Amino acid sequence: MHTRIAIIGAGFAGLGAAIRLRRRGHDDFVIFERAGELGGTWRDNAYPGCACDVPSQVYSFSFALNPAWSSTYSPQAEIWAYLRECAERFGVRPAIRFGTEVRQAAWDAAEARWRIATSRGEWTADVLIAAGGPLNEPVIPKLPGLETFRGEAFHSSRWDHGVRLAGRRVAVIGTGASAIQIVPAIQPAAGRVTLFQRTPAWVVARGERPLRAWERRMYRSVPGAQRLARTLVYWRTEATVIAFLRPALMRFAQRAAVRNLRRGVKDPALRAKLSPQYRMGCKRILKSDDYYPALARDNVDVVTDPIAEIRPHAVVTRDGTEHPADVIVFGTGFRVTDLPITERIRGRDGRSLAEHWQGSPKAYRGTTVAGFPNLFLLLGPNTGLGHNSVVLMIEAQIAYVLSALDTMRRKGLRAVEPRPEAQARFVAALDKRTATTVWMTGGCSSWYIDATGRNSTMWPGSSWAYRLRLRRFDPAAYREVTA
After folding, report:
1. What sign does the CA torsion over 457, 463, 466, 471 have?
2. Domain spanning 146-209+242-330: which superfamily?
């Protein structure tokens, strides 16, 4: 079977691409989704307390604002429902091939098309859009003895809702964005929660509140009201990027985070455990109004000694202490810089993306890769944000893809591929700009940094600057294959 455009993944990025393609008149596309339902990250992450840590007003497509958010920070169930509603409203659900995993996609230079092997048959496509996202392959540390554990153990993104937590001893491993939502949600019911912390996080007050009924009515009935609210939230949030680029300015935000810690935790010993020794922003800044108060409860322990092994009924730390556990929850993040899909996409020379990148992802404008004609990555290398909504970046990239398709149609091109020298210049400029950011100078180790020591995850600038760069396709940076 053949399609003009093949999209991998039916999360925010894949759905956004499909909707914009259809609205631009491109109807010949399919979306390959390995799961049985759409939603990506917001389908998979259904753990207790799961919610977005970006304000609701900017966590939606610009062409489909949602007046029905219940809170200033959207809960997982609402975001997932929003994505399903968008798929129905814009008519792209029939294009999704559920339960269809892409096992390999290889560029056929002779035919100038992609040959795609899926779990449900072979396809060809002129254009391939990889929209799998960076937060879909969970990481579970290889702890000695884990296979001997007799209780239930699972990753936060694979939450087992059949497991009862009431009155039980729950070990939570990790203190990232998932864990700080899980602990307050399960603490009231659990018998005991033991949180294993390797590195403390900087946590700022979230300031969440329910959206009032009159606000929702206004967004539905007053033209432009929600667009104005979104604009105000966007620029307020966007202004914070300066502290990531000029780390000396981060000290002001850091003082607010220290005050937040002091308010939430009165015990000096616990407060010392939770005090980071690196500059704020080096790792992901976390937002919560209830994390610190939950840690101060009598049935919660924070353990900072490294884990040595797992026993049938306990987690054992290096000092020899056994910490009894009935359930283990891993809040240990995802494979971001070594996504498995990169091993399955093969370019003009037959080598995979993973082989090209060798542990350090690089792409021209975070979207296209030299040696991989007609391949477009959504949320590719250096498109992450530490200060604003990645949906903004997704939409910028989709606009770039649409402009590329327009260029190909107008010029009669079969394929476009970034010139190696253009990509090298772009990456060199990124690396230079990144060198002085808080991610590289803040004194921490984070998942933003790849195996070679490069920041291949975060965009070292504002989202609006990125959007300006990607408004139009720039054919001078590309090799062109004519019909």
Report:
1. positive
2. FAD/NAD(P)-binding domain (3.50.50.60)
